[in-house]
## 1
Amino acid sequence: MSNLKAFELRSLKKKELLEKLEELKKELSGLRISKAIGNSAKNSKIRSVRKNVARVLTVYNQKKKTELKNKYKGKRFKPYNLRKKLTKNKRLQLTDKQKKAMTLREKKKSLNFPKRKYLVVHRE
């Protein structure tokens, strides 16, 4: 089997991808057995089959992740693995709403004593 192309695999459904994966794994186990026996004719094929298995798994996992992203798109909470990675500092930062929150006392003070605005007049 020649190298599979990822763009071709993306057109397949999840079930078909899993079938392809099983087929590739069987082929790989057969190749490993033939290598153990000492048949060196197919040894070079092991690498390409392993890479094909990796391609199929990659496409399958990408499809799964996009489905989950669409499922949780408008929801209030997202699973941790679907949230943005960012840095720890960014993740722990307060939201804008939390930053603007005031205690009752602060609100009263800011309403009763607003920030004074001064006008500077320049005379010549």
## 2
Amino acid sequence: MSEITYISEELVMEGNLDSAGSSVVVAGRFKGELRAKDVLLEANSIFDGNLIADKVTLGGLVKGEVSANTLNVASSAKVEGNLKTNALSIDLGAEVSGSITRIS
């Protein structure tokens, strides 16, 4: 069973988090670099920095660069930055401003 790191709505985290073997859920604010197996940014989350993971779901405000093998941008997301991925889905209502690059 994979471990989950949860950053709650009340938490503001700044720095680097390397959780490569587990999942991370961000409900609060994160500024810095985040590395994990899977990442979920909830609808009210704010992320500013670099995000690197195998599977990512963006639901909140994202500023920076996201690199993921599989990337979903949920309808509640607002992305200002660069997306790098092999597989991308963008839900109706999501806002994406920046570049999208396919990685191999």
## 3
Amino acid sequence: MQIEDKIYYLRIVFAAIAGSILGIIVKPNSDQSNTIGLTILIGIIFYAISQIIAIRIAKNVPKDKKKKVITIAIFGFMFMLLVFMILIYTIMNQSII
């Protein structure tokens, strides 16, 4: 498996973990501005952690490819974060409807 693939899957797993945590933390009838702020904060924290790990994984990569390490799977990260947050939130709060 190439280094780019490892970093991609690392970020997807971190997004799934962050989304699951957010799905558990966010409660029904909570303030929307707090929820949005919490989502952005936890997303940035988990992306930063994945960035630190990705830089350690890609330490032997040539300099021209090293810039790509920062942007690998950024949209996949955001998508999976939202998918898991919505999925876990819906599963945990089905009785509300």
## 4
Amino acid sequence: MDNLETSQEPTEATTNPENTSSSKRFQKTRIALFTLGGLICSVFSGIWVYQHQTHIYSSDARISAEMITISSEVSGRVTEVLVGTGHQLVAQDIILKVDDSQAQALKAEIEARLATIIAKKNTLHAERLMLRAQLKARRNNQLSALTAAEAAVNAARSNLSLAQQDYKRAQLRADKKMISRQAFEKAHAVQLTSNEAFTQSTAQVSMAHAALAEVEADTQQFAVLASELVELDAQANEVKAQLAHQAVDIEYRILRSVQKAIVDDVFVAPGERVSKGQRLALIHDPEDLWIKTNIKETAIRHLQVGASVEISIDAYPGETFTGSVTGIGHSATSAFALIPSPNPSGNFTKITQRIPVRIDLDRQGYALRPGMMVEVKIER
């Protein structure tokens, strides 16, 4: 037994140095790994600290767009919806229609009133033309009659003057018994007849003047007709204004896109009744997108418009987008809260506020949608 134990002792002595050497190598490897790990952590920690010293990070960011609400200008029943969610629109594309049967009937009634007024105007114009022609003919006739009457007066005056002279001569001769009684009476009769003819011709002139004055008086009917036409013009303008208003009312019942856009949602269906001002659809311009992020108030002093931004969009992992700060809000997001948060109890917990910031992308074209989550790294 002693020999056996003696033989085993050298074996243990020979194995112990190897174990010790292996243990030392393991210790060295472990120390090296811990040192390398520490160096790596130090490098990444340094990079993290450097990045956060030179950049502002925010994961509270989303794709935003100008969301346009399509509302009804009139009340009525929806008769047709021509688009759905995701439908692409161009300017003036029809989104939906509201019943316009009553509006069309009222428009037809107004058009009939306008047609009646126009017919009356045409009738009055025709009457004016006819009256003008009649008065012109009457005036010409009366001027001719007056000319003839004046000529007759001149002739009668000459005849009367001659008859008076003959009568005087006959009277002198009769006194001297130079002519017979019969010749004297004949001269006297001619003188009386000439005088009567002159009186009648003078009366004819007076009558011709009166008739001409009557014609001139009838021209006042033009003023009456003109005033009636003015009144009809006013009525026509009023009805045209009503017709234009009705046309606008009908156009309001056709809801159109105001620009190139994508339909986000439609809130009504055919057959539903809508009221004035009710929200019917929501659209946005897919080519006018930006990023809205909320930056801590403690970092806002390091931010300025124009600062470059690196952007990571959750929908496109692995891709880096670039942009720039184009707007910094002048109020914290809490200022826009619908329900204020007074502190009547006196208990107060201070919370770091956030300032809204707008970032515009340098490139568009990706299938970005409002509300998509984004992470941003803004250069200080």
